[in-house]
Specification:
Layout lengths: L4 E3 L8 E6 L5 E8 L10 E2 L1 H7 L9 E5 L14 E8 L2 H12 L5 E7 L4 E9 L4 H10 L5 E4 L1
Parallel strand pairs: 1-3
Antiparallel strand pairs: 1-4, 2-3, 2-5, 6-8, 6-9, 7-8
Length: about 150
């Protein structure tokens, strides 16, 4: 429920998929770890954490686009891993930089990184932190209304 996971009827377990909410252009990468959904006309069943990032928790369903990420591997967690709090992924670069400018006023280490898939390019807004501060920073950003995701790489 709290991991970035999803259920799909046919994709192999362990497959990573970028799911984009077509209504608001938010994206999240999830790992397929279950079978489903078992409701007609639905193609994927997201964990609560993934649905929250995509802004689907209230309505419960949304039109989404799926992109299988071939060769994508989850970052290995180690004591030396860089920790980021991701607050958004945008298809429009100017939207990412607008969020960056807003966050720069209160937070240090805000960056926009480019993430390219076979189908599109996304601009991720991330705040760099360390392992000890990651949870409190994520809670602070979530309290300000940002959909947060902790990323270790």
């Amino acid at each position: 429920m709290n991991d970035m996971t999803a259920a799909h009827r046919t994709l192999p377990f362990g497959t990573y998929v970028m799911v984009t909410n077509l209504g608001n252009d938010r994206s999240v990468v999830v790992r397929i770890n279950d079978r489903g959904p078992f409701v007609r006309d639905r193609i994927i069943d997201l964990s609560y954490a993934a649905a929250r990032v995509l802004g689907i928790v209230g309505p419960g369903t949304a039109r989404v686009r799926l992109e299988t990420l071939r060769g994508f591997r989850a970052p290995e967690t180690s004591a030396r891993a860089t920790v980021w709090i991701q607050v958004g992924a945008f298809s429009a670069q100017e939207n990412a930089y607008a969020i960056k400018r807003r966050l720069d006023k209160a937070f240090g280490g805000v960056v926009v990184t480019r993430f390219k898939t076979a189908r599109s390019t996304y601009f991720r807004v991330r705040v760099r932190t360390d392992e000890g501060q990651a949870r409190s920073l994520a809670q602070r950003l979530a309290g300000e209304g940002y959909p947060v995701m902790i990323v270790r790489e």
